[in-house]
């Protein structure tokens, strides 16, 4: 099988990242249960990744009910899971080569909403391949979700995945579009349908626990310099505020944000406060098809 511009080492690293993610996801999703805390699950999954000599591509996301993305627990968060819909999104990298996948764990009784995202993902993966327009993939997602009586989240999309960069082109829409780019051999793409029983639009909330380095710059404040040294170890990938050590870390982080050295990612929420489900796989586009690097994640119950 030919992988276009990707060499054997890159393909092997993408596969290894996917294997580690699958194992972490299958364990972590069983922990998303009323009585456990968000922090317990996030830290368990992140520790699992580190213990297997891999890197964390972004903080473990645990988005609840109307939240769609960018939700991760804070340092002292003792929030427990309840009767909620939980989108669990995990990213792993091996030498910078990233696997990104998500599942929905439903404790609300809205099984069909979780199923709609899973089935939309299955249809999208079946559609994807070299020469296929991303709008065609989006149409497959939209058809399935609307067929369940729900709405795709229209202003979120899948994305390309490159070395040390989890969000690149091409964007893979969650709806059909008339004109769009074609998938090409050698591309690595994360397809992630979002389904909702609301209007299908997300906006930024007020909570912000995920950040990313924007530029290197000298700072006078000692604690901010210390935080910047820690941040430089994250390979320019997104990080959680709780990863920074020592007293004053939160204040230092906000100082760096005000100086535009780091940027924050506010939690994205459905505009109607409606429920959101998510499913995601990472795949490599080959000369004659695709390879799903995150295959093996248990489907919904």
Outline:
With 301 residues, the protein is of the alpha+beta class. It contains six helices and 15 strands.
The amount of beta strand, in percent, is 25-35%
Strand order of the largest sheet: 7-6-8-14-15
Compute the gyration radius: what is it? Answer: 19 Å
Overall shape: it is globular
Largest sheet: 5 strands, antiparallel
* Proportion in helices: 25-40%
Query: How far apart are the first and last residues' alpha carbons, in Å?
Result: 33 Å
- Please tally the β strands and state the result: 15
Low-confidence stretches: none
> Quick check: average pLDDT?
95
Secondary-structure element pattern, one letter each: HHEEEEHHEEEEEEHEHEEEE
The secondary-structure class comes to: alpha+beta
| Annotation field: number of helices | 6
Task: Describe what you observe in this structure.
The chain is an alpha+beta fold and 301 residues long. The chain is 30% helix and 30% strand. It is built from six helices and 15 strands. The longest helix has 24 residues, at 8-31. It is globular, with a radius of gyration of 19 Å. 48% of the residues are buried. The model has no long low-confidence stretch (mean pLDDT 95).
